[in-house]
Design goal:
759 residues, single chain, 33 helices, SYO1-like TPR repeats domain-containing protein, 61% helix, mainly alpha, SYO1-like, TPR_SYO1, Armadillo
């Protein structure tokens, strides 16, 4: 149906003729797109707006500067931006331009409304093609759409114009959205959104009484606006701020989210847009919860307690709102609102995963819902650490050893809680011992007794029933995670991989498990007040190890991306369980072998930023170090300790060992052998001569640290410098805290050497 015959035309015509009728300079775009960096919007805007004379003064060396003469007065063009573009040098593109692009753009300016509408629709259909899109941009299609198509009398033409901008924004880079923002696209969106709001809330005629064609046009424009707002919000933070500050646009979003008549596709686009805009956005969170016109927050909260795609997407919006408003476990919002109320709905969404055949038959929507639920759970798991930090519990322990502090002589353990200073540590007699980080362990696995281990594993993994979340009334989100989400996440981590969809689901499930495991691993379980958290986490963590980590590790999968995810998860579990990790006999050697495989990883693509501290090798070293701590068996500790010392000794000759692996190995040695009260300190560290090896390694570590570029890898350089300082102080401490028996043997060895020299 032609737009001029559409009854909804009157609802839009009141404002669209005046839309975007601004100075031509406000719509400069093509120069910035076709010649990036050569023009400035501000300079060009001032030049075209004021049309004043510009005097250019050039300074030449050894030349007297004459008087500047006035510029010649030139006749200004009617539209200084709409200049004729040069034909492309590529013959194929030149032919395409002459045969297809120029005729359709000519029709877009045709006086007849029907021709304009058809041309706008045709451009919307062909703009997805890369070559066509490039030519259209050269011919300033954006300028034409903004100044002519969106102000057309035909609503069909305007709908096609919004579709053109949407597709361009989807296909081009984020810079395109930034340019649209600078062209004041939000003003155009505001007017279009107001028209749609007026149409939806009109009582004469009521929206439901409009023809299907009229309703279709409204939803098509709404879809284009939502997609543009979503892409604009992702492009730059300042654009998000401008969108949220626009009351008309916010009302438009709230109205669509709160209306039951919104079609499913439009509703999903609305919630997707709100999810993007609500991330770390206090203003939008406050506006939504205070909204009394549409009561959007109440609608979403009710929706989040249900099931289906809308419920999962509502959970995503609410999670962002809760986070921005700081509605945490210890400071819940309205009616106790916090992330805990969302986990049940998200967990139910994980129960039905489509098979590859179902996806091939067109049932891919359920798979997308599962992936979205997993992503939201992963975000909640990461944000839970903030809840723990701000709650009435002790601060989480540091993730890495921060050096040694000098304290009066007489302590038996090194203090590893404080950061070292360069001027400390000159007095060897004032070194103190590391505080023991033993966790509250109610059950110990006897690693030497395989039968007992298997029986214990059977108790943990024999049933898939929800775990007992223990006494976690003050941490309802963590309790809901342990009791509801983790069993489903463990199941999905071992999902049968029969297609790309299930591979993505497995990866997202491991990410969610990883986030929650790392959050819990930062809790200091040596504090008695955290014992209830450990009691609730212990069985869940053991099941994650046995049913999610062990099967993949034992399978010797060649997928290094999957191995990196598993290694990160295993490190987090090992940090929290320590010696209580349910290791199978010889399982630690799997991680040693995985480390060797990590050294042969292909180098990242050029230009791709990679965090060296997140490498597979670093994670394998971290796992092994965590397994060797606390009450680990002597043989296990010795094997891992020898591996770490060998790694340090080999780093100078073996160039495949990354510096980050070396730094992590040094830090793990500090953590393992920092307490002389542990049995393996005497049986392994001293008897195997680790101190002598570390003394020989110290100059190599200094050279390694100096070789790290501060500008390119600042964090790694800082950690390497810290490791050098700590190793110096660690060796001084060990020298003054050697076992008495060891001191006697050293004295005897020195006397024997002197006697041999005299002979």
């Amino acid at each position: 149906m032609a737009g001029d015959e559409c009854g909804v035309e009157g609802l839009f015509s009141a404002f669209f003729p005046q839309l975007l009728l601004r100075q031509p300079s406000r719509f400069y775009l093509l120069s910035a797109l076709s010649k990036p960096g050569k023009s400035s919007w501000d300079r060009i805007s001032r030049y075209f707006s004021h049309k004043r004379r510009v005097i250019t003064i050039r300074h030449f060396p050894d030349t007297k500067m004459g008087k500047a003469r006035k510029n010649r007065v030139r006749a200004s063009r009617a539209d200084p931006i709409a200049r004729t573009s040069k034909p492309p040098s590529d013959p194929e593109l030149a032919k395409l331009r002459e045969s297809k692009i120029l005729p359709i753009l000519k029709d877009l300016k045709n006086p007849e409304a029907k021709s304009r509408t058809q041309a706008a629709g045709a451009i919307a259909n062909i703009v997805q093609d890369a070559k066509t899109r490039k030519l259209l941009l050269r011919e300033q299609v954006v300028h034409i759409v903004l100044t002519e198509t969106l102000t057309d009398n035909s609503i069909d033409s305007r709908a096609a114009g919004w579709e053109i901008l949407k597709v361009l924004a989807e296909e081009e880079e984020a810079d395109f959205c930034v340019h649209l923002y600078r062209l004041d696209i939000l003003t155009a969106i505001e007017h279009a959104a107001k028209a749609i709001l007026d149409t939806l809330t009109s009582t004469e005629p009521v929206f439901s009484k409009l023809t299907k064609a009229q309703q279709r046009i409204v939803w098509e424009i709404s879809s284009s606006l939502l997609a543009l707002l979503n892409l604009l919000g992702m492009a730059r933070e300042e654009i998000t701020t401008a969108i949220v500050a626009n009351q008309t646009i916010v009302r438009f979003l709230f109205r669509l989210a709160a209306s039951e008549s919104t079609p499913q596709e439009i509703y999903e686009e609305t919630l997707s847009c709100l999810t993007t805009l609500s991330e770390d956005n206090l203003e939008l969170g406050q506006t939504m919860t205070n909204d009394q016109e549409t009561r959007c927050y109440d609608v979403l909260l009710k929706l989040a307690s249900g099931s289906g795609p809308r419920s999962v997407m509502a959970c995503g919006v609410l999670h962002n709102v809760f986070s921005s408003l700081q509605w945490l476990d210890h400071s819940p919002g309205k009616d106790g609102a916090c992330d805990a109320v969302l986990i049940g709905t998200l967990t139910r969404a994980l129960e039905h995963v489509p098979s590859a055949s179902a996806v091939a038959n067109g049932n891919a929507n359920q798979g997308a819902v599962v992936q979205l639920a997993l992503e939201i759970l992963a975000s909640i798991g990461a944000d839970l650490q903030e809840t723990l930090e701000k709650g009435n519990r002790s601060q989480p322990k540091e993730e890495e050893w921060n050096g040694l502090e000098d304290k009066p002589e007489g302590d038996d353990a090194m203090d590893v809680d404080g950061a070292s200073n360069a001027g400390d540590g000159d007095d060897e007699d004032k070194e103190d011992d590391e505080e023991d980080d033993d966790m509250d362990e109610d059950e110990e696995d006897d690693d030497d007794d395989i039968a007992d281990l298997e029986a214990d594993m059977e108790k943990v993994t024999g049933a898939d029933d929800p775990f007992d979340s223990g006494d976690l009334d003050d941490l309802p989100t963590l309790g809901a995670f342990i009791q509801q989400a983790i069993p489903q996440l463990v199941r999905l981590s071992n999902i049968q991989i029969d297609g790309e969809e299930n591979l993505a689901i497995q990866s997202n499930a491991l990410t969610a498990l990883n986030n929650i495991a790392w959050t819990v691993s930062c809790i200091d379980f040596s504090e008695s007040e955290n014992s209830n958290i450990y009691d609730a986490w212990y069985p869940a963590a053991k099941k994650i190890w046995v049913k999610a980590i062990t099967p993949i590790v034992e399978a010797d999968n060649a997928d290094l991306d999957l191995a990196t995810q598993i290694a990160s998860l295993a490190w987090a579990i090992a940090r929290s369980l320590g010696a209580n990790v349910p290791l199978t006999p010889g399982q630690h050697r799997k991680f040693i072998a995985l480390y060797q495989a990590a050294k042969n990883q292909p180098k990242p693509e050029e230009g791709k930023e990679v965090d060296p501290l997140q490498g597979l090798g670093v994670k394998c070293v971290g796992i092994l170090g965590s397994l060797a701590r606390d009450t680990a068996p002597i043989d296990l500790n010795r094997e891992i300790g020898v591996f770490l010392i060998t790694l340090l000794q080999s780093c100078e000759q073996d160039k495949t060992i990354p510096p980050a692996d070396v730094v992590e190995a040094v830090n793990q040695i500090f953590d393992i052998y920092g307490d002389e009260a542990m049995e393996y300190d005497k049986e392994v560290f001293w008897k195997e001569g680790f101190r002598k090896h570390l003394e020989d390694f110290l100059p190599k570590l200094r050279a390694l640290a100096k070789g790290i570029d501060k500008r390119a890898q600042g964090e790694l350089r800082d950690k390497a410098d810290e490791a050098v300082l700590n190793l110096v102080r660690f060796l001084k401490y060990k020298k003054t805290h050697a076992p008495k028996e060891g001191k006697q043997k050293n004295e005897e060895r020195v006397l024997n050497e002197k006697a041999m020299a005299m002979r």
